[in-house]
Design a protein that fits this description.
Order of helices and strands: HH
Number of strands: 0
Structural class: mainly alpha
Number of helices: 2
Strand content: under 5%
Largest sheet: none
Radius of gyration: 29 Å
């Protein structure tokens, strides 16, 4: 949205509503400042999940539940 259009709309508002708009703008500025904080994510290392997952030998075998459909 164009800044000039926003300015024109703001000028048509009563003073009480202009104060509300100013408060909302301050809220948005604070929200933007909080969003700028960059948190470094830990980088996973190759092999760090070793031993957490187990594949059974019959993993690729058809399931008994689906024998009627085969």
């Amino acid at each position: 949205m164009d800044s000039l259009l926003l300015y024109k709309k703001l000028n048509h508002l009563p003073d009480t509503m202009k104060a509300e708009v100013a408060d909302f703008i301050e809220f948005l500025e604070q929200k933007a400042k909080k969003g700028k904080k960059k948190v470094d994510k830990p980088v996973p290392k190759f092999g760090s999940a070793k031993g957490l997952f187990v594949m059974h030998n019959d993993f690729d075998e058809p399931l008994e539940d689906f024998k009627d459909y085969m």
